[in-house]
Amino acid sequence: MHYWQMQPIPAKMAHLFQLRKPSVRIPQPRIPDKWLAAFESDTDLVEQRVAIIMAWVVLITMPMYQTSHHLRNVDSEGLWMAELLFRIPGVLCGLLTLAALHFGRPQLPARALLRMLGISVMVMILALFLIHYRDHPDNMTQLSNGLVITFFGVTALAIRGLREWCLVFLTPFVIFLVIAPFAGIPRAMLLPLLFDPMVMVVITLVATAAVRHLRIREFLARQELTEIASTDQLTGLLNRRPMHPLMVHEVNRARRTGTPFSIVLGDLDRFKKVNDTYGHEAGDLVLQETARRLQAAIRAQDIVCRWGGEELLILLPETGPEGAGQVAEKIRAAMDDAPVQTGNEVIHQTISLGVSSFRPDDTVTTLISRADEALYEAKSAGRNRVVQADQPG
Ligand SMILES: Nc1nc2c(ncn2[C@@H]2O[C@H](COP(=O)(O)OP(=O)(O)OP(=O)(O)O)[C@@H](O)[C@H]2O)c(=O)[nH]1
């Protein structure tokens, strides 16, 4: 039997594997508030990629169309100049997009670049439509084909959905419909020319909604897996895995900006005795209650993780030795002041804590090792106390 055949799917993840009845509607899955920021940066990444691809498409196709008039039976000096004029903004937007996204930090968000690309291409094709109709009303097949291609491309750019599509596609299109009769094109003449392009718009809208739906589901599954992989199942705290990158981030920030930060390493005192005396289940309850008290003692921006068995690590951003000492003492008191009730047992559980604060020559390893030494000192000095590696100055 294969490994995967033997493993039950955890209840928390079961919905990810459920087979659903296909539905005609494409309801977009709801993204929980806690993941909105992550989804925003995910969307930005998708938009960056789409913007780069679209910029290349524009930069390749615009010169191609500009130099192929004789092949497309629209050879005329006046038209050539007019087309060049309306293609220049699209080409400039393409170049700006590539410059912004390929080289260095993008100064403009990908969303703004996509809007610029979409609107410039829409304005170009609709203006060319008006100009061509004035000069060659009997030869509009080429332009109708151009509309199909452009409507598809611009509709596909609206990664964020209908509101974005209204801005890049619908607004220029409605303006075009309003001014077309004034430019000499009766609305009745427009219908046959716009029929195929509009069918293409509907198909693309449905396809992009389906892709967006799949993307959101894939994002939610990825986030849930990441959360499961970085959470300690017993206490609900973060586990050791995501803590290292967070501390590296703080070390880099402290070096760059000079902002202090500290860590507190806590270890439950004589916890083996709790397990031996009251049983493992009672020990688990003590760990859960400890996690709850720790979280109540720290600020929202502080991060607490289960570092090992009965060891906890607290990261205190923007906190120097003095503040860190106060937080550690608060945690010590939170455990010492009230016993933990586990069923019938009342357990007086204390904690020892070692504190270290960032020094300019510190790495994550040296910082942890100083907190560890301080914790060892706290244990040697009798437990239920705080020892600071860096004395408040
Ligand atoms: N119940 C329970 N116990 C755990 C868990 N993880 C680690 N432990 C126990 O924690 C105990 C740690 O014991 P020691 O490392 O000897 O330290 P201690 O008894 O706390 O003594 P000091 O640290 O010196 O004060 C061991 O008995 C582990 O089995 C857990 O998830 N649940």
UniProtKB/TrEMBL annotation:
Coiled coil: none annotated. Keywords: Membrane, Transmembrane, Transmembrane helix. One of its GO terms (molecular function) is diguanylate cyclase activity. It catalyses: 2 GTP = 3',3'-c-di-GMP + 2 diphosphate. Residues 259-391 form the GGDEF domain. Its EC number is 2.7.7.65. The chain crosses the membrane at residues 50-67, 79-101, 113-133, 139-158, 165-183, 189-211. It comes from the Bacteria. Its cofactor is Mg(2+). This is diguanylate cyclase. It comes from Marinobacter profundi.
